[in-house]
Design a protein that fits this description.
By secondary structure, this protein is mainly β. Helix content is 6%, strand content 43%. The protein has three helices and 18 strands. The protein has helices at 2-20, 108-111, 259-263; strands at residues 129-131, 134-145, 160-170, 178-189, 210-211, 215-228, 231-239, 268-277, 282-289, 302-312, 315-328, 334-347, 352-364, 370-386, 389-401, 411-425, 428-438, 451-462. A 16-stranded antiparallel beta barrel has the order 2-3-4-6-7-8-9-10-11-12-13-14-15-16-17-18. It is globular and about 55 Å long. The protein starts with a helix and ends with a strand. Mean pLDDT is 80; it is low at 1-12 and 15-115.
Length: 463
């Protein structure tokens, strides 16, 4: 029965989204986990010239704003320009005459007037650029939260440098056969201590690279990669494939993070991971790792793997799992078990993206006593007005025992987040959000008790 229900749901997602999103351009927000960090995508559109779809060889001197009538030269999109001259006519779309980015960024021109869908991010700036597969870059993330959250953002009412990030990469190109590459990432800021090799608290690797109680340094990725044809293998220290949210700020829609990502998923692994592109629609992953969140020291033995499947044109499913010994600290924590993450990424329309995620974690110690048991459902809805502006919501139900309470003491935590992504330039991303957390048992340690309303905003400068 469950299998029939799953297949029925997938079929509904496929046929439903196909019917709604003809010629869908896949408004996928998050970049591939294998890709180098890019300027974060807020939306995706085809080339829109404010309604001008045909070359104009005539001169247009104005816009008909009285009755949203047809514009000369094939510009048939309704106009409601704050400046009735609409400088440039068809050649300029509704350019400077309609305000910043073809309309005030949050004004009527962008949200419902003549320039909906028209957005000029400018030319992206790259500090190092790319040459023959070698590339480097980074970003600066600074942010503020009025209340503390036990999820990265623990410094209340304080402007902080969260990520000063540098990365360098030699990407592999297997189109002509065998190739070798690699990657290294460095981070300084208040997020660094949460992405260090804290799985073994003995000062190894970057675990003690702290600078005071909150700031520090980390090397979350140092690996080599080799590939031939459809197969690639990375060996070293790298980020996990579990879950939808990631540590790197530009690759998340929201400033804050989910309880699931912070408490029930690993951040990094050390070991080897192979990726095989079985077809255009299927990728499989498999490898061996030394537990969770450790550097180049043995913290366990675990299998890391999964599958990515394009069920249909607008639906992508990812199942990822890690099973085995997660932590094996001498004289300390011993934890073994199983966890998985299932993510469904759906392009409902060209502009609307829906993400459904559920994780399950169950672990025991060396005496077979329970350590952690968590289950969650995270749902994201992201609407991209254009490449410069998107809005979204996230709702999370997080059920836990052994994370904030003793094992056997089960509690439920709920969180709702509403946010906006604003990109005034290709290298700048601003993410204001408001978040509500409900924790009736008071187990999570919210600053305001069992419920809390939090406002946060950050800015990311990419280079």
């Amino acid at each position: 029965m469950k299998r029939k229900l799953l297949f029925s749901t997938l079929a509904l997602l496929c046929f439903g989204t196909t019917a709604v999103a003809q010629e869908n351009a896949h408004a996928i927000y998050q970049a591939s986990s294998d890709a180098a960090p890019q300027v974060a995508q807020v939306g995706h559109f085809g080339e829109v010239g404010c309604g001008c779809e045909t070359p104009c060889d005539c001169e247009v001197t104005g816009c008909d704003t009285a009755d949203y009538g047809e514009i000369t030269c094939g510009a048939e999109m309704p106009y409601e320009c704050s400046d009735p001259t609409c400088d440039g006519g068809c050649d300029g779309g509704c350019g400077s005459g309609c305000g910043l980015l073809g309309g005030s960024l949050l004004g009527k021109d962008l949200l419902g007037g003549c320039c909906l869908g028209d957005c000029d991010l400018g030319e992206p700036f790259a500090l190092f650029g790319e040459n023959c597969g070698y590339s480097a870059g980074g970003w600066i993330q600074m942010g503020y939260f009025n209340n503390a959250l036990p999820l990265f953002n623990s410094r209340a009412d304080d402007l902080q440098l969260q990520q000063a990030w540098l990365w360098a990469e030699k990407s592999i190109d297997t189109s002509n056969g065998f190739d070798v590459g690699g990657r290294i990432d460095y981070i300084y800021g208040t997020d660094s201590q949460d992405t260090q090799a804290f799985g073994i608290p003995n000062g190894h690797w970057d675990e003690d690279w702290d600078n005071g109680p909150d700031y520090g340094n980390a090397l979350p990725q140092v690996y080599m990669e080799a590939g031939y044809g459809d197969l690639s293998v990375k060996v070293g220290h790298f980020y996990t494939i579990i879950g939808w949210e990631v540590v790197s700020a530009p690759d998340n829609f929201f400033y804050s993070h989910a309880y699931t990502m912070y408490n029930s998923e690993p951040f990094t692994h050390t070991g080897a991971l192979a990726t095989l592109a079985v077809s255009e629609d299927i990728e499989v992953y498999g490898g061996y790792v030394l537990g969770w969140d450790s550097g180049f020291e043995d913290n366990g033995d675990a299998f890391l793997g999964g599958i990515s499947l394009s069920v249909c044109e607008d639906v992508n499913l990812i199942y990822a799992t890690v099973a085995g010994r997660f932590s094996d600290v001498t004289g300390g924590t011993h934890e073994r078990g199983y966890m998985h993450s299932i993510v469904a990424d759906v392009s409902v329309t060209e502009k609307l993206q829906y993400i459904f995620q559920t994780d399950y974690l169950d672990t025991q110690d060396q005496f077979n006593d329970g350590v952690r048991n968590t289950f969650d459902i995270n749902q994201y809805l992201i609407y991209s007005l254009n490449d410069c502006l998107a809005m979204g919501g996230r709702f999370e139900w997080y059920n836990q025992e052994g994370v904030y309470t003793n094992y056997g003491d089960e509690t439920d935590i709920y969180a709702l987040t509403l946010g906006v992504n604003v990109k005034p330039h290709a290298n700048v991303l601003v993410r204001p959000e408001i978040r509500w957390d409900w924790d009736d048992d008071g187990s999570a340690g919210l600053e305001k008790g069992d419920d809390q309303t939090t406002f946060g905003i950050d800015t990311i400068f990419l280079f």
